[in-house]
Amino acid sequence: MRIFVTGGTGLIGSAVVAELIEHGHDVIVLTRSDASADVVRAAGAEPVRGDLADLDVLRAVAGGADGVIHLAFDNDFTTPEAIVRAIAQEAAAVDAMAGALRGGDRPLVTVAGTPAVPGRASTEDDPQLASGPVAGRAVTVQSVLDLDGVRGIAVRMPRTVHNNGTGGFAGLLTQMARRSGVVGYPGDGAQRWPAVHALDAAAVFRLALEFAPPGTAWHAVDDEGVAVRDMAEVIGRRLGLPVRSLPEESFGPLGVAFATDQPSTSIITREALGWEPTHPSLLEDLENLQP
């Protein structure tokens, strides 16, 4: 199939592009710069210039593709207003691509987050994330699952998607630690975040694209839940920095999410799609952090 990928040069996207090519798909990748286009060509894919604001480009490329995997998002979490703008931009972009795909039951695979369910690990049967700073994205995801004439699918990602010690919420903790000189965590750090290696997550996107029925959500989860304090301890040891609890507000707009216990499982995904993660766990991968 000829697949259009947005966000194809990021941590997850580059892994997805490689996974698709390895399994015989032709890949077109949305790129915002000449440098990104060069990276895409080197990976064996075809670049097309534009970003999520270029709705005409999105319509044209999606309309000529056999399917779309949408991963791009403006990850500016500095203020609530920036998050709202990013969510609105994504909603318009997804609507444009969905409209171009209608007819022929072509797949549109979008990315979501695993929901937090009080008292237990969430599953694929739980509804979309309904609260938190980026919960507005759930409206866009649900619109994809409700599409007619398009095989709309969601792959839910855990809070940390990692590769070589970087990425996700754990990566944000590392970035904050490098700036402040302290590895912090909210509360007592016992809250758990699910995690997955980017190369394992890429396989879920490819399997969902190829086999998943419309209106379904899947979990790319390896580690069901890693205590934030345990992540912080590894980060602190690798960076040579002190580790301690910090007030929730120290983490900005994402503080509430950082403080939430949010384990998740992927039993249904493993059984239905035949997926089995094979790459290092989060704590193992964090050992690759360089001081």
TrEMBL record:
Residue ranges annotated for the NAD-dependent epimerase/dehydratase domain, each copy included: 3-211
Top-level taxon in the UniProt lineage: Bacteria
InterPro entries: Epimerase_deHydtase, NAD(P)-bd_dom_sf, NAD(P)-dependent_oxidoreduct
Pfam families per record: Epimerase
Gene3D superfamilies associated with the record: NAD(P)-binding Rossmann-like Domain (3.40.50.720)
PANTHER family in the record: NAD(P)-BINDING DOMAIN-CONTAINING PROTEIN-RELATED, PROTEIN YEEZ
Protein's name according to its UniProt entry: SDR family oxidoreductase
Source organism of the structure: Microbacterium candidum
